[in-house]
Structure prediction request, 131 residues.
Amino acid sequence: MDLAIATTLTETTFDDAVARIREALAGQGFGVLTEIDVTATLKKKIDADIENYLILGACNPQLAHRALGVDRQIGLLLPCNVVVRDSTEQPGAVIVEAMNPDIMVQVADAPGLPDVAADAATRLRAAIDSL
Prediction:
């Protein structure tokens, strides 16, 4: 099982990739609840320099409600993290990747959860593919 649903964008900027994934997520019913600028945080806290690296905490309320209805502890795995980062291997490229919802199924083996994870995976894949 892959850890992420991902794509690499080669004809865009980091900021454009962030704007595009936000729009694509919204088109699939996801809102961004949290945003962690890992680059700025590491620079401020430990004076470490890394490439542009942003974590978006994406949530589709209907899917979250369904998942919580199956297992209240599933909140430990929510929201769905989406990472936008400059490639360290391919200069000028931006990687956009979302956590594979099937990981929830592997961690919490609850009846009904595979259906929610499959729906989330379909929506996240559609958002990533639209980029």
